Amino acid sequence: MAEAELLQAGPAHVGAPAQERDAARAGSRLRRFDGHPRRYVDETLDVLAAWAPGLHEALTGLGEGDFVIVDGTLIATDRIHADEPYYSQKHKQHGMNVQVIARPDGTPLWFSRATPGRTHDLTAARAHGIIQACLTRQILILADCAHQGTGATVRTPYKNHREQPAHYQQFNHDHARLRAPGERAFAQLKSWRLLRRADAGLPNERCNWGF
Predict the structure, then answer these.
(1) Which residue has the higher pLDDT, 14 or 92?
(2) What angle is formed at CA 42 by the lines to CA 87 and CA 201, rounded to 5 degrees?
């Protein structure tokens, strides 16, 4: 970084860690708007994405005997009907599919990159490497019926459980109780003001989010 740019970021950032300097640099450029907002948005997103942990980093410390909650959610976008890849038949609207991994208490561990809304949750989970990463570490995954037949360490509820023996019904009850806190992760994601006016053409399509 040029000395002049570092000084423009403010004296408090001289000698600061590289990530803090990058954030300060992006922020100072946004304040010095010169007619190219998209480039500055791109730079800011790149800095934020670099801070987010990768999938394997997010699972650090977890192993056999632990479980996580995995599910997908649709982030609505302003796409038009012609943008077929972003139209979710399940939700009957355009959007981006984001996979979420949460701790048993609902604390978000990792948010995936966004994929077109028509992507099936199981397809997305496999493509992001979630299934394999948890299998390698023998981490149990509690998922919904969309993941049935996955195998590995994935556990899903039984379909038509009311027609099944009592212990199937009890399994589904316990499964739902353990998965319930994961809804907090989705609530947190959807509360972000940035995503309320999401445009699938913006670079947030390529970003990871993590905690």
Answers:
(1) 92
(2) 15
